[in-house]
Specification:
Elements lengths: L5 E6 L4 E8 L3 E9 L1 H5 L6 H23 L8 E7 L3 H18 L3 E5 H7 L11 E6 L4 E6 L6 E5 L5 H11 L7 H9 L22 H17 L5 H26 L4 E5 L6 H12 L5 E3 L3 H4 L4 H12 L22
Bound molecules: 5'-O-[(R)-(carboxyoxy)(hydroxy)phosphoryl]adenosine (KG4) and zinc ion (ZN).
Length: 341
């Protein structure tokens, strides 16, 4: 009988210190997250220096907790997988150094993982991949359509040219005086509003799978400021619903078009904005009409940053023979295609 594979994942690219242990690439043995959101809230966004300090304080505790919950000893692990990029360099470095220390002291292979590959592989904790597939990645830092013909092989067919979808959500929320991160607040408001405002949709050139959200974000901010100057009242619910409709329409239409052109079997939703109720509903209703294509949406806890997804991607990268030595450095601009054959 084949021996079970146990991979530890470490994630510190932004404001969550997270460590998880995954069995055979798909089963969560432990998934521990120490969130720093409360510390960043009063600044309206993530402060890199504060993030690094929190990671330093939390990382050892979170590693211990993940090992305890999984009830494992280090000699039972097969590898340490860690987010090497992209992200905040000072934040990434804490995870990378912790991973290097563990790999060195326990003589374990070190596997570098791309953060977005992690978001995509959160879906493999839900169901097995069937290729070719398309992943719609929508997070605070990224908005991408990624085509995969096989495990560990990533082709970015479209990406944002300016703001990421989550970033636009956070900035619009800030204009409406809502706390960071604003995505969930806008989502909640939008459920109670109607999309009555006419806001732009950036389709870009014919055939492009790229995105752009900065024009939409500016249009919302201008509407709010103009209304304030004129003493008009725009219901925040309607503004949220109109903004959300504009974001979702572009995301869903471009995904639908790519699915046909690339003839995929599966569509995966990934990243923090995948927690958005409106987006989940719109994709579900679109793909309900296309039963030949399987739509996979991770549970909320696996949409936002976590380490289970890093271990899940790490499991595949480990099997592909991807390794780093102790010279591994954090790379804030790491490319996802790096390990394509
Ligand atoms: O993937 P993630 O946890 O971190 C990055 O890798 O960026 O994504 C965080 C982003 C934030 O911008 C947050 O506002 C957004 O995900 N987000 C949402 C929702 N929940 C989180 N955006 C819209 N609707 C939500 N329900
Ligand atoms: Zn993320």
């Amino acid at each position: 009988m084949k021996k079970d594979q146990w991979i530890m994942g470490i994630e510190t690219s932004c404001d969550e210190t997270a460590v998880a242990i995954i069995k055979n690439g798909r089963e969560i043995a432990s998934n521990v997250i120490a969130s720093q959101i409360e510390s960043h809230k009063r600044f309206g966004g993530v402060v890199p220096e504060i993030a690094s300090r929190h990671h330093v304080e939390q990382i050892t505790i979170v590693i211990e907790e993940a090992m305890n919950q999984a009830n494992l000893s280090f000699d039972e692990l097969d590898a340490i997988a860690v987010t090497a990029g992209p992200g905040l360099v000072g934040a990434l470095l804490i995870g990378v150094n912790a991973a290097k220390a563990l790999a060195f002291s326990h003589n374990l292979p070190l596997v570098p993982v791309h953060h977005i590959a992690g978001h995509i592989y959160a879906n493999r904790l839900v169901t097995e991949f069937t290729f070719p597939l398309l992943a719609l990645v929508v997070s605070g830092g990224h908005t991408e359509l990624v085509y995969m013909k096989e495990h560990g092989h990533f082709e970015v067919i479209g990406e944002t040219r300016d703001d990421a979808a989550g970033e636009a959500y956070d900035k619009v929320a800030r204009t409406l005086n809502m706390p960071y991160p604003g995505g969930p607040h806008i989502d909640r408001l939008a459920q109670n509003g109607s999309a009555t405002l006419d806001l732009p949709r950036a389709w870009l050139e014919e055939g492009s799978y790229d995105f752009s959200f900065s024009g939409l974000k500016s249009a919302v901010i201008n509407r709010v400021h103009n209304a304030e100057q004129r003493g008009e009242v725009i219901a925040p619910e309607d503004l949220a619903a109109s903004f959300q409709e504009s974001v979702i329409e572009v995301l869903v239409k471009k995904t639908e078009r790519a699915v046909v052109e690339y003839k995929v079997n599966q569509v995966l939703l990934a990243g923090g904005v995948a927690a958005n109720k409106g987006l989940r509903r719109a994709l579900e209703s679109s793909f309900a009409e296309k039963p030949e294509i399987e739509l996979v949406i991770p549970p909320l806890a696996l949409c936002t940053d976590n380490a289970a997804m890093i271990a899940a991607a790490g499991s595949i990268m480990y099997e592909k023979g991807v390794r780093a030595d102790l010279s591994l450095n954090a790379n804030p601009g790491l490319a996802i295609e790096l390990y394509n054959e």
